[in-house]
Task: structure prediction
Amino acid sequence: MYCSEPQIRLLDALEQLGCMKMRQAKTFLRLCFGMEEKAAKSIVRQLRYKGDIHIDENTGDLVIPGKECDRNIIRAFDIAFSFAEQGDAPEIMTPPRPYLMLAYYAVRELQLLILYVPVGMEWRCGTQLSVMRKKAKIKTLQVMLLADEGQLERIGTHVPCVAAYTDSAGRLKIKSLEGKRHGD
Result:
């Protein structure tokens, strides 16, 4: 069956990471194609009808059949969209291990790498950022997605990066880190 360019782009992003919120699908299609909410809902409805995606009964998340939704992927999409601009939507790609997400912004020639940091792994993950920075061949912004805000004081990294976490009110917070060991 024929798929339109917006359907293909949305499906590609979902296939890379497995899930996203409906609000994120609408944002993604607006950024990529300037699409209104009604048109974005239609794209999702068509993909559901074809069986390419389904909606999780418990959460309402859009999910690729056979995959489960990961809350950190949902948070990573929000981070990727926070760095997007109209006309420079993120292209979602397969991330290198151990990264959670790789988003590429073609207009700015910028890649965004998001690394989930479990509690107790702050220093080790900071070291991973240093390794990846040396390997990067293009402009790269690395984000440490924290399990909780309390990890900020335990982060150790020698490279500039961004920390992202959900505050006590459930809002996404993004903080630039200087590239030195924090908490000393």
User: Anything to note?
Assistant: The chain has a mean pLDDT of 89. The helical segments are 5-17, 22-33, 37-50, 71-82, 122-135. The chain has two domains: 1-69, 70-184.
